[in-house]
Specification:
The chain is mainly beta and 564 residues long. The protein contains three helices and 27 strands.
């Protein structure tokens, strides 16, 4: 697999070079995009001076250059690099990893794009699209045909370590592609396939090195996964109506170390084990737009309990959901109304002790009669119900929230005032008679923001926030006051800002009464170097006070960014 990965990289470079040489008489090379580099310093002191949750020194670089060769060949590149110095003493230190990535995706012709390094490529909504593989890919779109293929690594190996409760992960390979047809009317059909499989030999050397350095042998054998998904997606437009959907079939092996079964299915496609299962999924959406002021969307999905797609790790299975979402604009588009209602349930094949049903409803309105005044209103209600045979395990609760946010813009000569208010209320109500008194919670929050801009490039921004949360055994109040001053010393070149924030939180209960106060100071400067980019500096100091102790943290960063 490593040799094939290097082949993709070589093919990408050779193809790009050949096309560039063939067109060398047309236009010169152009460079576009942007790049930035940031250096950071962080330190803290006080009650817990040794428990740093961030590295002391950090340097990060990001670049998105785009080469345009001879006016026709476009080569976008992506570069992400970070480095840190200074140990992190926290329980989460093992989860932090450097984010160093490099990739390029040249658009060689209007119908041909290649990918190399780290890249993003979506095959369909149920096969692959959430992960960024390290490898190679290709996208072809000659005329109505659509072809895509990818090959690479989506997960890097790491040995197991029982001392921190980490089971280890294997190197995970991915290969797949899609073939489709798209008409000028927007109608399309596409067949996709992807396979993701763990390399069971990928952590042997890592595990041996880890055991040698620690003098301890971890005998836990991490299960290796294997997954193959095939899908058929389509889209059918018909005037003001558009219908789209996808049907998928998934083969999933939860442990590649389990014995294999003898089947007629080719092993290169998907080897079947005793820990394998097969299941399906479907998605559909119907959109109706009879007029520019009214839209109705109907959507639904059915994901089988045994359907897994490692290309979308966050996709829930064992779920059926139906949603209706109308939207309406009135009064010359100054009033917009939105509504959404849906039903979601699981236990599709009665494999659970009880079925959970969720009713989802939301409504919103936005009224903007003039440029100076507007108001937004939002309400949502989510209900969950599970009828378990055991009364104490039954679930029946509702969560509702309401938000009101008016805003007002006033002008007096060349001075403008922007005032916005926001009030929110949320209520979590547990209808279970055994747990209701111990779990119900209500929260009220309000925020006020006032910004004034003067003709002298001076602006002041004041904010006041308040929140109160009431639970059966504890009550929490939080308020904060902040003021920010911004000024342009040299219009178009040098600008700066300074701000102060005071926050206090009080938690009280039957045997609890604590207060925490935070004072934060923040300053920033930005200098524009015309075509050479922008240099900016930011610094903040936070002081935490909580009886009988406190702590202080300091952070400063210097950033240089330039447009290419």
């Amino acid at each position: 697999m490593a040799h094939q990965l290097r082949f993709w990289h070589a093919l990408l470079l050779l193809t790009g070079g050949a096309v560039a040489l063939a067109q060398s008489q047309q236009q010169p090379v152009q460079l576009r995009g942007n790049a930035s580099i940031t250096a950071e310093l962080y330190t803290n002191s006080g009650a817990l001076p040794e428990q740093r949750y961030r590295p002391r020194y950090t340097v990060r670089a990001f670049a998105n250059p785009q080469l345009v060769l001879f006016g026709t060949v476009t080569i976008p590149l992506e570069l992400s690099w970070s480095s840190s110095i200074g140990g992190i003493r926290s329980p989460f230190a093992g989860m932090l990893q450097p984010f160093n990535q490099f990739g390029l995706s040249p658009q060689l012709t209007p119908w041909l794009r290649l990918h190399g390094g780290y890249f993003s490529l979506q095959l369909s909504e149920l096969t692959f699209g959430e992960l960024r593989p390290l490898g190679g890919g290709i996208e072809l779109s000659p005329g109505p045909l659509r072809l895509a293929a990818l090959y690479g690594v989506v997960q890097h190996p790491r040995a197991a370590d029982s001392s921190i409760g980490f089971a280890g992960v294997y190197r995970r390979w991915v290969y797949g592609g899609s073939l489709g047809y798209e008409a000028e009317s927007g109608a399309s059909i596409r067949l996709s396939f992807v396979r993701l499989t763990d390399d069971t030999a990928s952590i042997r050397l890592h595990q041996l090195l880890h055991d040698t350095l620690t003098g301890r042998t971890d005998t836990v054998r991490t299960p290796a996964l294997d997954n193959a998904v095939a899908a058929l997606s389509f889209q059918i437009p018909a005037g003001s109506v558009r219908f789209s959907g996808e049907l998928a079939l998934s083969g999933y092996t939860s442990n590649r170390f389990s014995p294999e079964k003898s089947t007629e299915l080719p092993r290169w496609l998907f080897p079947v084990h005793y820990s394998s299962n097969l299941d399906g999924a479907a998605k559909a959406q119907l959109s109706i737009t009879p007029s520019p002021s009214f839209t109705l969307a109907l959507s639904g999905q059915w994901i089988g309990p045994g359907f897994y797609t490692l290309g979308y790790p966050q996709l829930y299975n064992d779920v059926m959901e139906v949603t209706v979402s109308p939207a309406l604009s009135l009064v010359n588009n100054t009033l917009a109304l939105r509504f959404s209602a849906g039903l979601r349930l699981n236990n599709l094949r009665s494999t659970r002790l009880a079925t959970t049903r969720r009713l989802l409803a939301a409504a919103g309105a936005s009224w903007n009669p003039t440029e100076q005044f507007g108001v937004d209103v939002q309400y949502s209600n989510f209900g969950t119900r599970m009828e378990h045979s055991n009364d104490t395990l039954r679930v029946q609760n509702t969560f509702q929230s309401f938000t009101l946010a008016p805003r007002l813009l006033l002008r007096s000569g060349t001075t403008s005032h922007l005032l916005s208010l926001t009030y929110s209320f949320s209520d979590a109500d547990d209808r279970n008679p055994f747990t209701r008194d111990a779990t119900r919670q209500q929260t009220h929050s309000a925020a006020a923001l006032h910004t004034v801009s003067f003709p002298s490039t001076l602006s002041l921004s004041s904010a006041l926030n308040f929140s109160r949360s009431n639970a059966p055994t504890v009550r929490t109040e939080l308020w904060s006051l902040s003021e920010t001053v911004s000024y342009s010393f040299i219009p178009g070149k040098l600008s700066g800002s300074a701000g102060v924030t005071l926050t206090q939180m009080r938690t009280s209960g039957a045997q609890l009464d604590s207060r925490t106060t935070q004072l934060g100071l923040r300053t920033s400067l930005s200098y524009r170097l015309q075509q050479w980019g922008t240099l900016s500096w930011t610094s903040f100091v936070n002081r935490y006070s909580r009886q009988p102790q406190g702590s202080t943290e300091f952070h400063t960063s210097l950033n240089y960014s330039v447009g290419l």
